[in-house]
């Protein structure tokens, strides 16, 4: 090959690379990050993907989709945030509080959609629940605790003391405990807390509640959800009814749960992403909470834990576990 | 790798360079296997975050964070020196105690700093992007800390500390109060980690109770990478080497995050990082063998 042909090849390659770069600018790109791999958080990610596909954004049609998890490490979450900012995607989706904070701290210009954050205002992701005016919007997984208390009363009508097992290191759980304590006292009940900083502590924490409470309520605390079986063991042997807010826990032995379906939460998040891809500014979209709550009940578990569920409650359930 | 992730790797690498310097003091100078770091790093972050959140000047808050973490290190040293608890166990006890203490300090598992002023926003020069300014500020700080440590370890006290680590019996025979040296060394080591934690919280938008997980592993990895790249018995070289090691480690992670082109997925990140670090560690050995063969 002489010099001339080498130059020609080089020029050709450069032109091709240029053309490719142009094509990439036109294709839409979405970058998703989550703090850790976990069934609920993975369901959110899948839901986002599903919503994008439903709106016609698929990899086959040129959507650039990338997903990174920090594997539980906040320093890696920070590096993922930097990588995404450098990749300049059209939208960054950040799942769970630490990942969302890292991304929001890293960019003030690229649209960010957070998801599965219980209190985005306390986490300083957005200044308030209304349209933020910044580059951030998203979907919170906060549950209306009034409805949760209603459910507790429907399952155990004469309950006076509600127990709760949670991880004091999980921001979402601490928010729930604080609110629940206030709300329960307003309705003449009280809250007894038991903390489990690690998954192996969940069983011991539950046992510490035996004899002190009429019902055990749990939120979507990661530690508790991971080790729900150890809670069920205590509930069954000590005849304490268990009310959960993670619907999957009902299959594992809780009596009832009124909860967010995380796949639906992801779909809802994905719809916000689609609106931004179509040209809406994230600052004009208000933060949302889950629009769909589902009731799961398990009459078998109720019998084991010494209560019977009313027919009305069973009928209103989205799913009855046999 | 984009320019953002390169500056980002440098920024986080320099922060962990402070951790690496701390680990160098405990593990190498004092010969004290100290896991307190996993608790003192978030203690620094928690202290700085909560103080800034309540309106304290960010520089004051960062100083307070280093002091608090230094005190935690001193307690570990005290458990070992006065109560005769084995060094590793003393540090593990302190590490788990700090988990609860950090929750108390923050009064919540997460304190955000996204909208509050930080040392970086205060120091940021006009006309320089924040993602460039932060690593430059950190670079200046790390250089100052490195030089201060070099100076300190050449003073009477510094030399006494080094002899405490390398031969405690001999050091005692020379009239050095080795117990005090351990306390002081542990305080300096953990103060550096606390300083790193405070800066990390300020650059990453807040402190989180989970931010300490694996800090010691990263610090040790940085020390070992640094030592294999720049092997030397001189402490002045070692303090430079471990900072380079910490930055390199972050570049490996940034590379691993971009490894999707070879069919690797997000969950392979830790494995890819481990492989990259292994390669970095093996290179000096391979070079040595290559040289032997040629001669």
How would you explain this protein's 3D organization?
The complex is a heterodimer of chains A (322) and B (295). With 322 residues, chain A is an alpha/beta fold. In chain A, 45% of the residues lie in helices and 19% in strands. Chain A has two domains: 28-141 and 263-292, Response regulator (Rossmann fold), CATH 3.40.50; 145-260 and 294-320, 3-Layer(aba) Sandwich (Rossmann fold), CATH 3.40.50.2300. Chain A has helices at 3-26, 39-54, 74-87, 97-106, 145-155, 171-186, 202-207, 222-226, 228-238, 248-251, 262-277, 299-304, 311-316, and strands at 29-34, 64-69, 91-95, 112-117, 136-140, 161-166, 190-195, 215-217, 242-244, 256-260, 288-289, 293-297, 319-320. In chain A, the strands form two sheets. Chain A has a seven-stranded mixed β-sheet, with helices on both faces. The longest helix of chain A is centred in the first third of the chain and has 24 residues, at 3-26. Chain B has one domain (3-210). Chain B contains twelve helices and two strands. In chain B, helix 1 runs parallel beside helix 6 and helix 6 runs antiparallel to helix 11. With 295 residues, chain B is mainly alpha-helical. The mean pLDDT of chain B is 92. The chains are: A alpha/beta (322), B mainly alpha (295). Chains A and B meet through strand 2, helix 3 and helix 4 of A and helix 1, helix 4 and helix 11 of B.
């Amino acid at each position: 090959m002489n010099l001339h042909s080498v130059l020609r090849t080089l020029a050709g390659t450069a032109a091709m690379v240029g053309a490719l770069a142009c094509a990439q600018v036109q294709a839409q790109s979405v970058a998703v990050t989550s703090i850790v791999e976990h069934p609920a958080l993975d369901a959110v990610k899948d839901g986002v993907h599903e919503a994008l596909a439903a709106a016609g954004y698929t990899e086959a049609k040129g959507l650039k989709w990338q997903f990174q998890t920090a594997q539980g490490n906040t320093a890696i979450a920070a590096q993922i945030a930097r990588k995404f900012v450098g990749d300049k995607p059209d939208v960054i989706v950040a799942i769970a509080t630490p990942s969302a904070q890292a991304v929001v701290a890293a960019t003030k210009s690229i649209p960010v959609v957070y998801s599965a954050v219980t209190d985005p205002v306390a986490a300083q992701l957005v200044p308030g629940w209304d349209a933020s005016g910044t580059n951030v919007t998203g979907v919170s997984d906060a549950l209306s605790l009034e409805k949760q208390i209603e459910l507790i009363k429907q399952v155990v009508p004469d309950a006076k003391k509600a127990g709760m097992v949670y991880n004091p290191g999980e921001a979402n759980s601490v928010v729930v405990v604080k609110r629940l304590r206030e709300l329960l006292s307003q309705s003449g009940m009280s809250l007894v807390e038991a903390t489990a900083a690690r998954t192996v502590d969940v069983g011991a924490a539950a046992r510490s509640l035996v004899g002190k409470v009429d019902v055990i309520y749990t939120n979507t605390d990661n530690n508790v959800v991971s080790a729900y079986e150890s809670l069920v063991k205590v509930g069954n042997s000590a005849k304490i009814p268990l009310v959960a807010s993670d619907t999957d826990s009902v299959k594992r032995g809780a009596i009832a749960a009124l909860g967010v379906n995380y796949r639906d939460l992801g779909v809802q998040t994905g719809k916000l992403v689609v609106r931004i891809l179509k040209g809406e500014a994230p600052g004009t979209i208000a933060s949302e909470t889950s629009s769909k709550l589902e009731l799961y009940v398990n009459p078998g578990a109720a019998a084991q834990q010494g209560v019977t569920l009313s027919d009305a409650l069973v009928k209103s359930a989205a799913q009855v576990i046999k | 790798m984009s320019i953002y992730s390169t500056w980002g790797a440098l920024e986080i690498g320099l922060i962990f360079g402070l951790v690496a310097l701390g680990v160098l003091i405990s593990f190498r100078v004092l010969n004290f296997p100290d896991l307190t770091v996993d608790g003192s790093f978030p203690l620094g972050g928690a202290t700085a975050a909560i103080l800034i959140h309540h309106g304290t000047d960010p520089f004051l808050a960062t100083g307070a964070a280093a002091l608090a973490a230094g005190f935690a290190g001193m307690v570990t040293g005290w458990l070992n020196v006065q109560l005769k608890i084995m060094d590793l166990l003393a540090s593990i006890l302190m590490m788990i105690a700090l988990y609860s203490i950090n929750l108390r300090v923050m009064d919540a598992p997460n304190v955000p700093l996204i909208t509050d002023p930080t040392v970086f926003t205060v120091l940021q020069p006009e006309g320089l992007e924040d993602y460039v300014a932060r690593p430059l500020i950190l670079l200046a700080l790390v250089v100052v800390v490195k030089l201060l440590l070099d100076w300190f370890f050449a003073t009477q006290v510094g030399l006494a500390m080094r002899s405490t680590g390398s031969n405690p019996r001999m050091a005692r025979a020379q009239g050095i109060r080795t117990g005090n040296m351990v306390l002081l060394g542990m305080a300096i080591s953990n103060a550096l980690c606390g300083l790193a934690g405070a800066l990390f919280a300020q650059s990453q938008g807040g402190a989180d109770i989970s931010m300490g997980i694996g800090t010691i592993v990263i610090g040790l990895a940085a020390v070992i990478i640094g030592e294999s790249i720049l092997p030397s018995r001189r402490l002045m070289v070692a303090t430079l080497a471990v900072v380079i090691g910490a930055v390199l480690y972050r570049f490996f992670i940034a590379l691993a995050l971009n490894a999707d082109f070879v069919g690797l997925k997000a969950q392979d990140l830790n494995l890819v990082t481990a492989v990259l670090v292994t390669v970095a560690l093996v290179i000096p050995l391979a070079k040595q063998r290559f040289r032997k063969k040629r001669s």
